[in-house]
Amino acid sequence: MKELDLLKKDWKKNSDSFEQISEKEIYKMIHKKSSSIVKWILIISILEVCFWTFSNLFINTDDLLQKMNHPEIVLAMEILTYFNYVVVLVFIVIFYKNYKTISTTVATKSLMGAILRTRKTVQYYVWYNLGMLVLITILSYFIAFVYNPDMAFFREQLAESGKTMFFTVGILFLIILGILGLFWCIYRLLYGTLLRRLYSNYKELKKIDF
Amino acid sequence: MSENLEQSFVAQLQANQNIIHKICRLYTAGEDAHKDLFQEITIQLWKAYPKFRGDSKFSTWTYRVALNTAITLYRKTKRTISTIEYESHQHFVKDVDYNYEEEEQIKLMYKAVYQLNDIEKALVFMYLEDKDYQEIAETLGISEVNARVKMNRIKGKLKKILNP
């Protein structure tokens, strides 16, 4: 291609026409903070894990459980709590391992793969938490209806009328849908802007190397 | 990190800074963005430097880290490049055998290259820098054959942009 050769000639001619940056300025630069997407992913991921881990700690169900006086439910809740700790621990180890594989000295495709893998780890953790949230919401409603003495009146109502039953289940379903929708939107917005370019470049590389 | 490491890094980077400038020229528009990307690349190079063993040349290593930063890590604020910015961004050297027609063609070529996507720009950049296909392929993490095929396609794309 003739034009490309012409460009090459010009490119070489201009390759030392840049204003040179002094050693002093470079010294200053290396002590500044990076604003790369990897750094942002790390910050957001840490915030996410903190949010989900602490939100589990703050949901206080002890009073309700005591009131119901069913030790088997208390035990089930305790097991669930410990299971959650194990999941958090396993997640942090996997996240750290993936994060460590991010290196700028490897091939572009591998670097992109490593970043996306790290990001996916957090995504799975969030999906796990959302899943748990949905599961616990459904279970608590169920338990509340069946065991909570305060609900006796409501239970009778439900048994009598199919319409009330229908509405209750409907509202529960809508609440769950609303929570999932809200998180989906936040995620699209947050990671959409952060990772759009990375995704499209990764796709392009994969397309070349089919 | 030790003082010595810092010193040797800064000296080597200072001597090789044109590699970074050239990448900034291709991937950014305007002086501010150029400086911003230059700084991010410098930070990433410095972060990776302790692992730089010297079994490859400092320049070769710089190419890889700098390109990776520009394509993958850098958060671009402006996605498209306006004509005004483009014009002010060019530093054309007017020499004795100044050929108007040729200069016009070169200008159009730069404009066409700016319309390529990030990956295509990387291939063109390494082509302009006389890198062989093996190095291009290794840097991007694709096969050599596919790098050649892609480069041919880019040439076709550039032709199409020039003669729509």
Automatic annotation (TrEMBL), chain A:
Entry keywords, A to Z: Membrane, Transmembrane, Transmembrane helix
TM region(s), chain numbering: 37-59, 79-96, 125-147, 167-190
UniProt keyword Membrane present: yes
Claim: Transmembrane is one of the keywords in the record: yes
Official protein name in the record: Beta-carotene 15,15'-monooxygenase
Record lineage: Bacteria, Pseudomonadati, Bacteroidota, Flavobacteriia, Flavobacteriales
TrEMBL record, chain B:
Domain RNA polymerase sigma-70 region: 14-80
Keyword Transcription: yes
Domain of life: Bacteria
GO BP term, pick one: DNA-templated transcription initiation
A Pfam family hit: Sigma70_r4_2
GO terms, molecular function: DNA binding; sigma factor activity
Sorted UniProt keywords: Sigma factor, Transcription, Transcription regulation
InterPro entries membership: RNA_pol_sigma-70-like, RNA_pol_sigma-70_dom, RNA_pol_sigma70_r2, RNA_pol_sigma70_r4_t2, RNA_pol_sigma_r2, RNA_pol_sigma_r3/r4-like, WH-like_DNA-bd_sf
Residues annotated as domain RNA polymerase sigma factor 70 region 4 type: 111-158
Family: Belongs to the sigma-70 factor family. ECF subfamily.
PANTHER family per the UniProt record, alphabetical: RNA POLYMERASE ECF-TYPE SIGMA FACTO, RNA POLYMERASE ECF-TYPE SIGMA FACTOR
Protein known as: RNA polymerase sigma70 factor
Organism, scientific name: Flavobacterium hibernum
Lineage: Bacteria, Pseudomonadati, Bacteroidota, Flavobacteriia, Flavobacteriales
